Amino acid sequence: MKLQEALRVQRGVTAVVGSGGKTTLLRELSRELIGDGSAVVLATSTRILPFDDVATVSGTDEEAVAASLAKHGVACVGEPAEKGKLAAPAMGFGRLAALADYVLVEADGSKRLPLKAHAAWEPVVPQEAKRAILVVGASGFGGRVASAVHRPELFCELAGCAQADAATPELIARIIAAEALADTVVVNQAETPGALAAASRLAARLTEPVFAGSLRGHELQRA
Prior knowledge:
The protein is 32% helix and 24% strand. It is α/β, with parallel strands linked by helices. The strands form three sheets. It has a nine-stranded mixed sheet, with helices on both faces. A two-stranded antiparallel sheet has the order 5-6. It has a two-stranded parallel ribbon with strand order 8-10.
């Protein structure tokens, strides 16, 4: 099942939160949408590294965004920030949604770890967002909370565990349910029978639809 088909991404602004593949989801989903003839803006509400193969537009020049979309089908829009990263776009997500068919927004960070618990100020979901998709990295299943989770102390506080404990699908589901940040969950990096089985264990404890598979491979299935 393709990413767009599985996640039922609507036109307008979609926020992507969590860990273990947010940037990959933005990149791969944008490629599918562009392939269908849609215009896509990639952005962040916090900080993100520019996409190597996508033109970056800064400032409030709508014509520059429109020109990139017309030429390439995609534009990364954001303001220069520290360490070569981009911050939220100056022109706002509502204006971007008027220029593109889809605006995909990475709405928090995870220090490149597969799992995450969110602080009180996270994620930064744009008010214009119609959907929020939570990404979980299957490579973190079974790893120690201390090493697999961004903000492990918050994870343990919510899950009632110790940082030396294994991050089981059951504990991860407890965090997702407690935080209630998204309407859809994606378990990325689930490319083996064992990882898919773990994703099913997680899905059994959630009310939100859960999809599992490989974002890079553009293949998801219902967990």
